[in-house]
Amino acid sequence: MVILAHSDKETHGKNIPLACLVFNAIPEQTRVFWKEEEENVTEGTEWKAGGLEQAGRTGVLQSHIRVPTQEWTDGKTFTCVVETKSGLSKNTTVAKKGIAQEGHYSALAFNSR
Question: Are 109 and 90 in contact (CB under 8 A)?
Fold first, then answer.
């Protein structure tokens, strides 16, 4: 699992885009969602599966969220949570205060099987 966030130089406008990439995931067995602080985010999210046209195939799941610039600037935390039908649960959290210079990514090994 990797979360991608834009650097300060790229943060313009009303929203900051964040992306969570989950590798080796089976879409029909995997749930990906976001939390702001400890609350589930239900608005402004979207997800897609890349290269997973056939059922049961693994690939990359992408979940995107647009965070209001003020919430990002205030240092709120945003967490990408991945859960599988087999009971595995992984998450990784990002916040502006944890970003170094040009950008940020956080990697976490994850296998949905």
Answer: no
- Report the alpha-carbon distance of residue 56 to residue 11 in Å, rounded: 37
Residues contacting residue 12 through CB under 8 Å, at least 6 positions apart: none
Alpha carbon distances (Å) from 9 to 1, 95, 99, 100, 110: 24, 16, 12, 12, 30
CA distance 102 to 34: 23
**Residue type at 59 in one-letter notation:** G
pLDDT at 107: 43
In tens, the pLDDT along 70-89 reads 998 899 999 999 999 999 99
User: b/e map of 36-60 (b: 16 or more CB within 10 Å)?
Assistant: eeeeebeeebebebeebeeeeebbe
Does the pLDDT value for residue 58 go beyond 80?
no
Query: Is the pLDDT at 98 greater than 60, yes or no?
Result: no
Q: Which CATH architecture has domain 2-107?
A: Sandwich (2.60)
**CA 27/CA 52 separation, integer angstroms:** 8
